Amino acid sequence: MPKPPRPTYRCSECGWEAAKWVGRCGECQAWGSVAEAALAPASRRAAGPVTAPARPIGQVAVEDAAHRTSGVPELDRVLGGGLVPGAAILLAGEPGVGKSTLLLEVAAQTARYQHRTLYVTGEESASQVRLRADRTGGVHDQLYLAAETDLGAVLTHVEEVRPTLLVVDSVQTIAAGDVEGAPGGVTQVKEVSAALIRMAKTRGITTVLVGHVTKEGSIAGPRVLEHLVDVVLHFEGDRDSRFRMVRAMKNRFGPVDEVGCFDLGPEGITAVADPTGLFVEHHHAGVAGTCVAVTMEGRRPLLAEVQALATLSAQERPRRTTSGLDSSRLAMVLAVLQQHVGLRLVTHDVFASTVGGARLHDPSADLAIAIALASATLGTPPPAGVVAMGEIGLSGELRRVRDLDVRLGEAARLGFTTALVPRPAGAPIDPRAEQPRTVEGMQVVEVPSVLGALLHLGLTARQARRQPSMGD
């Protein structure tokens, strides 16, 4: 006789499965969430009818999957051209970041193009959404609104309205009546999302699902949800800033290295086509401890100002505080400055931040961080109109960065006069031998190392002012 199937244990938070019971989930590290899962009866599937016969791929029409504008240019930029009929899009973000406001704007713009739109809300009442629509100017006859939390009712609304665009806010609040578990659980999210995606594919309806995030920043629910959808978007932003960014983490119809910039204000959300001015402070005079970096957010160059402050520490262990920068990269830059430049910062508290809430993850910002730190330590402001870009190695050399011409063009467009960039491989290794060249009216100085960059700017220990002692 065949052996009975062994029981499996599944986490109710993320869907992780194990052969035996454990007290803590091995995937999401949640305590007490692993329980025995019901065994599905074994069955043998027979061949069934097909929806359409298979045909050569060259005979498949592509017109039905063409992009259609959403009415929001920055979102179209991230999606690769716009909304695709039958596509399933998952938009996730922290509470209060503006997901509902953005999607209500997308639904209103789609309705203005005479495309019927259905907005299903499970978190708010219909009157509350109407108030937001009045404030943002999103009221239109082709925009239909329904407040439902039952999957069957949502599918009924789709049958009656027959929309071109369906927005479900959010997938964690919709529940299927014939499935066990509370709304937002692993089983419910899998069933609800599978039903909505199946409906989107068969009827050619673009479906946008709003997803919650955990305290770690990952999308709540089973990981299979990200595999089922066609596009995964993350909506990011700081609560203290009006600036918001939409970043594509997965996109079957376009690139995944694009970002969209938005401004969230009292009148709603608006696209920001040129966000560089938000991250650069315009000083009337030279300020020590500042430098402008040119980073790439997807395919878009952004200029961001880095500020640094170094003061003598009264503690045994000096502080290293960052805002908008990677603390580990700051520690590496400090070590390089001490080892290869001679700046002694082991007794100083170091503070480094960005302007406007920008978050710099691009390694090309290393050189700007080093210049800002050296300028703050020596008390000497860098020359005006200087931008810096380059990744710093542990031996103090500068490594080349991608899309250098695009970065230089953006810096020249904004009026900067000098750019410090890494020297190409094979050039002379003398740190004093700069080779200036001109790009769009801006002088480009190629330096091989961080020491060469500081020598060119005059930020060396010989120009340092006397540092005050603890007894001063």
From TrEMBL:
It comes from the Bacteria. Residues 64-213 form the RecA family profile domain. Residues 349-472 are annotated as: Lon-protease-like. Gene3D superfamilies: 3.30.230.10, P-loop containing nucleotide triphosphate hydrolases. GO terms for cellular component: cytosol. GO terms for molecular function: ATP binding; ATP-dependent DNA damage sensor activity; damaged DNA binding; hydrolase activity; zinc ion binding. ATP binds at G93, E94, P95, G96, V97, G98, K99, S100. GO terms for biological process: recombinational repair. Keywords: ATP-binding, DNA damage, DNA repair, DNA-binding, Hydrolase, Metal-binding, Nucleotide-binding, Stress response, Zinc, Zinc-finger. A motif (RadA KNRFG motif) lies at residues 250-254. The middle region has homology to RecA with ATPase motifs including the RadA KNRFG motif, while the C-terminus is homologous to Lon protease. PANTHER family: DNA REPAIR PROTEIN RADA, DNA REPAIR PROTEIN RADA-LIKE PROTEIN. Belongs to the RecA family. RadA subfamily. DNA-dependent ATPase involved in processing of recombination intermediates, plays a role in repairing DNA breaks. Stimulates the branch migration of RecA-mediated strand transfer reactions, allowing the 3' invading strand to extend heteroduplex DNA faster. Binds ssDNA in the presence of ADP but not other nucleotides, has ATPase activity that is stimulated by ssDNA and various branched DNA structures, but inhibited by SSB. Does not have RecA's homology-searching function. This is DNA repair protein RadA. It comes from Nocardioides marmotae. The gene is radA.
